Amino acid sequence: MSFTTSWLGDKEARRVVExxxxxxxxxxxxxxxxxxxxxxxxxxxxxxxxxxxDPQVTLVRGxxxxxxxxxxxxxxxxxxxxxxxxxxxxxxxxxxxxxxxQAHLAxxxxxxxxxxxxxxxxxxxxxxIDPVTQDILIGQSAELEKFQWFVRAHLENAAGELxxxxxxxxxxxxxxxx
Length: 178
Ligand SMILES: [Fe+2]
Hints:
Helix 1 packs across helix 3, helix 1 runs antiparallel to helix 4 and helix 2 packs antiparallel against helix 5. The N and C termini lie far apart (48 Å). By secondary structure, this protein is mostly helical. Belongs to the Dps family. GO terms for molecular function: ferric iron binding; oxidoreductase activity, acting on metal ions. InterPro entries: DPS_DNA-bd, DPS_DNA-bd_CS, Ferritin-like, Ferritin-like_SF, Ferritin_DPS_dom.
């Protein structure tokens, strides 16, 4: 890795690139998962969920582009292939196929929990070593957390309880929400 930025030390730049590469693969996986849900959702709430997802796909693809270009700016080589997604991710492939809106949204809530918790860990870690990267991660997290609210709003009752409360796996959340 030869660095094109002089603002970070070698060690710090390498660590930031590592964090960003994991985020790039997570974002690439996320926009594929969102499209998969867009294609597989069924039932009375089909159209609302089908149409809610496409703008998020566009947003997430744009975020992947921003992250990849930050990697390049720091002197790294962004890996955007399917193989990179496979090797970088610590989570399983999205587990639902054709299913109801409630099942997919509950599973998607679990997906966003995982994504955002790692994003926030990245925000904490980049605080000192690269506040510019941190600023990118914070801005993205604000929009992703807002979308998670959109998802959860479909799964909430008037008391603010979620249909899939206490479930932390996609299949567990889907089973309880269905
Ligand atoms: Fe479509």
